Amino acid sequence: MDIRIGILNSPRELAFESSESAADIAATISAAVEKGAPLVTLVDSKGKHYLVPTAAIGYVEIGSDSTRRVGFVG
User: How many CA atoms lie within 13 A of 59 on its CB side?
Assistant: First the structure.
């Protein structure tokens, strides 16, 4: 699952791949924002942890979990 998080006042976005489902990621971020938690913790497919301040989240884009094609398309 591809995830992109836009951070306020930052020209770059946080992008990584996660093995969690789109519903789980959305629920984790929504719960952290609703509870007023200072940070939300996300884990990528390689086991790296990302701590994102909830007050600085501009947007969250959760991509599809389709597999990438390899080779020439045409």
Answer: 8
